[in-house]
Design a protein that fits this description.
This protein is of the alpha+beta class. The chain has three helices and twelve strands. The chain is globular, with a radius of gyration of 17 Å. The N terminus is likely disordered.
Length: about 200
């Protein structure tokens, strides 16, 4: 194995087929041979291309991100995600563990389906088992066709992606009602991002 050092990923990387590459922003990730990686939406990290929840997503989607949240607000968010999906008419969601989760690399970004009613139970059980830590690990929860994507982020904020204006408005009402600042950008995993605060 050859380690190239700690890199801050700012674009697409295609490592030579005979080596591993070590990538880091806020943590270290060992990427398997031949994996293509792309930048994470906000903090310059990277996720394997095949695990990106960007694929097959409407290019008109927007991403909203909260300011960094307290643990209490993160817990409050977790408890409200299932009712949020129910209000939008979803019964099943897809869940993935991402950055900061205590799983082997080949187990990260592996989607599995659960009922909406199991969201909080899965998150809490994962915390008890030491797999996930709220505010320090990524837990991605999305509708099956990716009309709605939540990321409980390892940076103690929450990301919300959708191309449906009424869903975006619902998210904004939810967090502005708690006095939380929000920023918005077009949803993309490559290229420059332009974040604007939502008033």
């Amino acid at each position: 194995m050859v380690l190239l050092g700690v890199l801050k990923v700012t674009g697409i990387i295609q490592p030579p087929p005979s080596i591993f590459i070590l990538i880091s922003t806020t943590q270290i990730l060992l990427v398997p041979i031949g994996t293509t990686v792309i930048p994470e939406a906000r903090n310059g990290g990277a996720i394997p291309m095949e695990h990106s929840h960007q694929s097959n997503v409407d290019s008109k989607q927007k991403e909203i991100v909260t300011e960094p949240l307290t643990v209490l607000l993160m817990k409050d968010c977790l408890s409200e995600i299932a009712p949020f999906f129910v209000r939008l008419g979803f019964e099943v969601v897809t869940v993935m563990y991402g950055w900061g989760s205590k799983l082997p690399n080949d187990k990260l970004w592996q989607p599995f389906n659960i009922s909406v009613s199991q969201i909080q139970e899965i998150a809490e059980r994962s915390e008890m088992e030491g797999i996930f830590e709220l505010g320090k690990s990524d837990l991605i929860i999305q509708s099956p066709k990716k009309e709605v994507i939540f990321t409980l982020c390892h940076e103690s904020d929450v990301h919300f992606v959708s191309g449906t204006e009424s869903y975006l408005e619902e998210f904004v009402r939810w967090w502005h009602g708690k006095g939380v600042s929000l920023s918005e950008s077009s949803y993309t995993v490559s290229g420059p991002r332009s974040w604007m605060e939502i008033q």
